[in-house]
TrEMBL record:
DNA repair as UniProt keyword: no
Protein name, UniProt field: Aldehyde dehydrogenase
Record organism: Streptomyces camelliae
Keyword Oxidoreductase listed: yes
One Pfam family in the UniProt entry: Aldedh
Listed Gene3D superfamilies: Aldehyde Dehydrogenase, Chain A, domain 1 (3.40.605.10), Aldehyde Dehydrogenase, Chain A, domain 2 (3.40.309.10)
Record keywords: Oxidoreductase
UniProt similarity note: Belongs to the aldehyde dehydrogenase family.
Ranges for domain Aldehyde dehydrogenase: 20-477
Lineage: Bacteria, Bacillati, Actinomycetota, Actinomycetes, Kitasatosporales
InterPro entries: Ald_DH/histidinol_DH, Ald_DH_C, Ald_DH_CS_GLU, Ald_DH_N, Aldehyde_DH_dom
């Protein structure tokens, strides 16, 4: 049995503080279905306190007025602290959300460390002030921190997404109220410890685990200058609506239904070995997962057999077992959602090539077999709606024009990939698919480039100078002639 982790206080302004209320969040293991942790449930009063502390730290404190190098020193210590404790962080996250431990080490913990590191590189190279020759005379263009940031992160990759928001915000000189998901608040306490030990000044960071109601209060708070949100499309629309009351700036990273386009000249095994980890990563609970696999109709049976064999070979089990490739889904509701979509797919006429239910021998835990549907057409719900689990669709196409059309025929536009023997041609295909990120003969997410989506996949960008700029305001100063 996993040792119960209990936290009785909230991390507000860099200090552990008693919560205003007595409500508690219970963290349930998706593997054992037992309580593995308890933390305070932040209230509106706690939000008011955290925002007031962040406001004061931004308006009067040293952090926004520190030099860039001084901020980099502190952020570097946060990055190093995450690296030093990456195995502990990975274990905690796998226990909370079911992410396979091997994946947690690389993506949840070391991946988060890489985000912090990349943000430091971007901050160092960024231009904060420049002179220009204006139409009416010389001008000075400055970039200044946007202010108090509300960072709302999901349960699927909590440290990675927190880093995507915290690192640029802190380096820019902002103060932050971080709102972790109630499914995965335990790792946020580790981050709070690391930030405190790194010497982050008082008031700069608060961490408030809470549900949607309190999240909505936070993003609608008049003391917030910017909201950085990652989550579902429905929640993102609500965040934008609430933030609009105060014209609060927003960045939204939302859902996806990404297509992996396998061209006729591709090598079967190369495509399968590249796409399978990208489709079933993190138990399929990834917004960038390649959940629609498009294969040429003329070679459909060959690809169907190869993908089904690879999916059926994935090892399902305890997320803390280093050999596990697919763990349980984060909550019973997610398990039921996936099982419902499996039923819907069958009712729509799609054929289950492998999987389709609960794994044998895993009656306890919120498990769903790695499932591959064949004979899918793009009008089916399973091809259009984000399932967020280990349920993947295989779609045949006639020619390349049809493949690109299918890839673009989606309400989403977050990610995608193309697999071909001709990289130059793959780049041409990439240019035609309307998504924010794309890969040729690989699948990756580079922290020095812009990440975000078209259409319902979001608004704004994270990572790279484009994402860093979202935490800065632009100011123009007119100068007298000859200055």
């Amino acid at each position: 049995m996993t040792e119960l982790v209990e936290h009785g206080q909230l991390f507000i302004g860099g200090e552990l503080t008693d919560p205003a209320g007595k409500d508690v969040i219970e963290v349930i293991s998706p593997h054992t279905e037992e309580v593995i942790g308890r933390v305070p449930h932040a209230s509106r009063e706690d939000v008011d306190r955290a925002v007031a502390v962040a406001r004061r730290a931004f308006d009067e404190g040293p952090w926004p007025r520190a030099t860039l190098e001084e901020r980099i020193e502190v952020v570097t210590r946060i990055k190093d602290g995450i690296a030093a404790r990456h195995e502990e962080i990975a274990r905690v996250i796998s226990s909370e959300n079911g992410s396979p431990y091997s994946w947690s080490v690389l993506a949840q913990a070391l991946g988060a460390m890489m985000v912090w590191d990349a943000a430091i590189r971007v901050a160092r190279d960024y231009t904060y002030e420049e002179r220009r020759d204006g139409v009416l005379g010389p001008i000075l263009v400055r970039r200044e921190p946007v202010g108090v940031v509300a960072a709302v992160v999901p349960w699927n990759v909590p440290q990675f997404v927190a880093a995507a928001k915290l690192a640029p915000a802190l380096l820019a000189g902002c103060t932050v109220v971080l709102k972790p998901s109630p499914e995965s608040p335990l790792d946020a306490y580790l981050l709070g410890e690391i930030a405190q030990q790194a010497g982050l000044p008082q008031g700069v960071l608060s961490i408030l685990p809470a549900d949607r109601e309190v999240s909505e209060y936070l993003v609608g708070h008049p003391g917030i200058d910017k909201v950085a949100f990652t989550g579902s499309v429905a929640a993102g629309k609500r965040v934008m609506e609430v933030a609009a009351r105060h014209l609060t700036r927003v960045t939204l990273e939302l859902g996806g239904k990404s297509a992996a386009v396998v061209l006729p000249d591709s090598d079967v095994q190369a495509a399968v070995s590249g796409i399978v980890p990208a489709a079933w990563m993190n138990n399929g609970q990834a917004c960038v997962a390649q959940t629609r696999i498009l294969v040429p109709r003329a070679r459909y049976d060959e690809y169907a057999d190869a993908f089904a064999a690879a999916a059926s070979a994935l090892k399902v089990g305890d997320p803390l077992d280093p050999a596990t490739q697919v763990g349980p889904l984060v909550a019973r509701r997610q398990q039921q959602r996936n099982l419902d979509y499996i039923r819907i797919g069958q009712e729509e006429g799609a054929k289950i090539l492998t999987g389709g239910g609960r794994p044998a021998g895993l009656e306890r835990g919120w498990y769903v077999e790695p499932t591959l549907f064949g004979d899918v057409h793009n009008a089916m719900r399973i091809a259009r709606e984000e399932i967020f689990g280990p349920v993947i669709c295989l779609l045949p196409y006639g020619d390349e024009e049809e493949a690109v059309k299918i890839a673009n025929d989606s309400d989403y536009g977050l990610s995608g990939s193309v697999w071909t023997a001709d990289v130059a041609h793959g780049i041409e295909v990439a240019r035609r698919v309307r998504t924010g990120t794309y890969s040729v003969n690989t699948f990756s997410l580079d922290m020095l480039g812009p990440f975000g989506g078209y259409k319902n996949s979001g608004l704004g960008r994270e990572f790279g100078p484009e994402g860093y700029g979202a935490y800065l305001e632009h100011k123009m100063i007119h100068l007298p002639a000859g200055a």
